[in-house]
Design brief:
5 helices; mainly alpha; 2 strands; two-stranded antiparallel sheet
């Protein structure tokens, strides 16, 4: 659907409509006044001696860098790449994040996580070779 929409609209408006309708849906299913806002003011202890940060700042970080930016980049990419290619690249994202967390942050991966990454990579390989 995004591939068809970016032909007629700019990617930012497509992102705004998509996230706006998703927000409206969740506002109906889980009303805003029931959200535990007090939890956002609690300080979280960061790993690797990074100190403490309010949970609200971490939530905002996750909203902006974990949802808005990736969704915007994916929709923007649909102007230049077919939807299948954008989907395949998006599928690789969790595997890349796990590898970065392992190499840079020293995170440990258990066998089932490594197996899952291998399955995803095999799926990407199959999807890429099947399209040719």
């Amino acid at each position: 659907m995004g591939e068809r929409l970016v032909v007629r609209r700019d990617p930012i408006s497509v992102v705004c409509f998509g996230l706006g309708f998703a927000s409206l849906t969740f506002a109906i299913l889980l009303p805003w006044w029931s959200f535990p806002t007090g939890e956002l003011r609690v300080d979280a202890v960061m790993p690797h001696s990074l100190g403490t940060v309010p949970v609200g700042v971490l939530a905002l970080w996750g909203i902006v860098l974990g949802t808005i930016v990736p969704f915007s980049l994916s929709i923007g990419a649909l102007r230049h790449l077919p939807a299948a290619t954008v989907g395949i690249v998006a599928t690789f994202e969790p595997v890349a994040a796990a590898l970065i967390a392992w190499a840079w942050l020293g995170e440990a991966l258990v066998a089932v996580q490594i197996l899952g990454g291998v399955v995803v990579l095999c799926g990407i390989l199959l999807a890429e070779t099947a399209r040719r």
